[in-house]
Amino acid sequence: MSQKPTLPKGTRDFGPAQMGKRNFIFSAIKQVFEKYGFMPLETPAMENLSVLTGKYGDEGDQLLFKVLNSGDFLSKAKETDFAAGSKQLLPKISEKGLKYDLTVPFARYVVMNRHDLALPFKRYQIQPVWRADRPQKGRYREFYQCDADVVGTNSLICETEIILMINEVFAKLGIKDFDIKINHRKILTGITQAIGATGKESDFCVAIDKLDKIGIDKVLEEMKGRGISEEATQKALPILALTGTIEEKIAHLKNILQNSEEGLQGIKDLEEILETLKTFDLDQHHVDFDVTLARGLSYYTGAIFEVKVNNVSIGSVSGGGRYDDLTGVFGVPDLSGVGFSFGVDRIYDVMEELDIFPEEARTSTEVLIIHFDDESKKYGLSVLNQLRKVGIKSEIYPDSAKPKKQFDYANKKNISYTIVIGSDEIATQKLSFKNMASGQQEKLTLEEILKQLSKH
RNA sequence: GUGGUUGUAGUUCAGUUGGUUAGAACGCCUGAUUGUGGUUCAGGAGGUCGUGGGUUCGAGUCCCAUCUUCCACCCCA
């Protein structure tokens, strides 16, 4: 009885072709992170549920994958727990969960190791995370995040450096048309004060975050639905419709927020970030100030970012922001951090949609050795040894097979060159070196072949 | 979590109001070609129709459940 194997919902295999492309993205990100002084960190796939729960809101808790206790997981549960429902039963049968993002495990790490850390601590982390979400295009239940965070400094240089890193990574990847949207949590707070909806900040944010998706009318409707007064929504209207350059928007908002100390502080932060950016003289920084950017995660308290690639059907590919008190829930207050994350799976989808993966992302074997009989196969092994000694990615067809089969193998693996060896080649010491793309073939000594290959 | 959608050969898809033995293209294998792949030609293999029930004389087709896919909402990378 054989059964067809299947994958769990929302998970994927990555074949060699995909991995070549994925690694291309990973290494671009890694190089940039390290160039900016971030050090790698890895944390376990599982965390204790006490670490994870309550950090992402009720919605987030629901999306956590819980791991059943090992052994007799029912042993601690009583009938009364079972009768009381899942919420009561859960802690009795599950103590661990798969991590939901990289920021909370990072905060946990900082707290556990704070005496050893050189503050400010800069780390990057590239690992899979899991969410029990319903999958869709660009949304998976297992996906990779690439986080870089700095903790232990309030300096806005960090924010500027995030903008620089995003620019560098996208330049490496060849993504040209994108916007780094930036906003500030304090500006959002300021706006709610200015329009007379103080305290309604999170309702306000949830509503305006949808602006580009559902349009201004529906946003105003949603605000009313969330208990923001008619008068306030009317006041919000011109603010949400702000246009012009970053400088113009800032000037305008300064006026609107003149009575909000918090709002003005947010503006000041933004100005400083942009001012610092100037000293790095980028041709184009892709930054756009977007007052409607809110972002869901509630722990952000300062600048917030989101990156959108234009003219593709994928949502944001990167996001982040500053959080003043991330480690507070673990008993270490007043440690400010700022960080952001690249969504590799989405960047992959974007690059696939734009068809901009370079040839180098499709690395394969460079040379296949093809042989006709046992003698030439044996001779081929010594040739193979020479190729590998100089670092050429090479392999020999391991079985004795017809040349057609061996050539088919080379085609299928997209191998650029073949070296064909038979009795003639052994006798003359001149090997048949074939370019698989052009079909051209010439008889060369091994040394000449090595010279040819080193050019590529 | 709510509502909808999808599933037929390795892959992409046909398959009539329920009616004989479920098709095509591409891919795969063999040969034409025993020292040369991509092209061409000839032949061949490959399907518990997602899974489990039900209705019917008869189900790929209708009904129910379940899994999966994609989409919208919620939320998010």
Automatic annotation (TrEMBL):
Its main location: cytoplasm. It comes from the Bacteria. One of its GO terms (molecular function) is ATP binding. SUPFAM superfamilies: Class II aaRS ABD-related (SSF52954), Class II aaRS and biotin synthetases (SSF55681). This is Histidine--tRNA ligase. Belongs to the class-II aminoacyl-tRNA synthetase family. It is found in: Cytoplasm. It comes from Fulvivirga marina. L-histidine binds at residues 101-103, 131, 145, 149, 295, 299-300. The keyword Nucleotide-binding applies. GO terms for biological process: histidyl-tRNA aminoacylation. It is an enzyme of class 6 (ligase). One of its GO terms (cellular component) is cytoplasm. Homodimer. HAMAP family: His_tRNA_synth (MF_00127). PANTHER family: HISTIDINE--TRNA LIGASE, HISTIDYL-TRNA SYNTHETASE. Keywords: Aminoacyl-tRNA synthetase, ATP-binding, Cytoplasm, Ligase, Nucleotide-binding, Protein biosynthesis. CDD domains: HisRS-like_core, HisRS_anticodon. Its EC number is 6.1.1.21. The lineage of its organism: Bacteria, Pseudomonadati, Bacteroidota, Cytophagia, Cytophagales. Residues 1-398 form the Aminoacyl-transfer RNA synthetases class-II family profile domain. The keyword Magnesium does not apply.
